[in-house]
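Class prep. Sample record?

___
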Amino acid sequence: MLFGGNSDSLAEEILRSSSFLRELRSGQLTQRCYNNFIQQEALYLHRVSSTLETLMCSLQEADENTRSLLLDTLKHYRSRNQSLFISPPPQWLHFALQSFHYVVLEEPVYWLVALSARACLRDFLAREQLFSELKPGSTLVSGSEVKAGSIYQQWSEESLKEVAWTRKYRKVIGEYQDQMDVFKAINIFRQHMMNQKSFYKAVTCDVEDNE
């Protein structure tokens, strides 16, 4: 339901709208820009994990599979946290957290739907094989191919991890699909994919960082 053509069309929209992903795909992404992406994503994961931690402490009734996956997600997000201090939070993060707060008023399975958007996008990008090779005739300056290869390796390793998470979400959500409101689930998934779009558009690259 959520992981088919609907999610792929949203992911295509994000791919087209993101200068960061275009740079990644072209093989011209700089380390500074990639570091900016890592910092911004860590900020998102830090804030969402804080919300999720609070929710899990108050969660009384949830089936074991859902609870287990939510706890695993919390641990996964915590492991990606870095020392961050950005105040006030950027607008894209404000809207992302606001929409997640709306979801927590729903059943826990809808939390999984919301959380699955990020993993599903990375699954799509992995299948697209972004930046899989440097094309002949590239305009990269000397030494950039080595740096680019290192960035791609980091990206690929993280993407493979998210592909595994997509499968986990798919399995648990599928078990309770008949008990879910299809339109509600689709709307929640779409909203959180749009939050990912805002995030990727907000990650800007310094074109002068080309040494």
User: Anything to note?
Assistant: The radius of gyration is 18 Å. The chain has one domain: 5-79+90-131+141-202. The domain at 5-79+90-131+141-202 is CATH 1.20.910.10 (Heme Oxygenase; Chain A). DSSP finds eight helices and no strands in the chain.
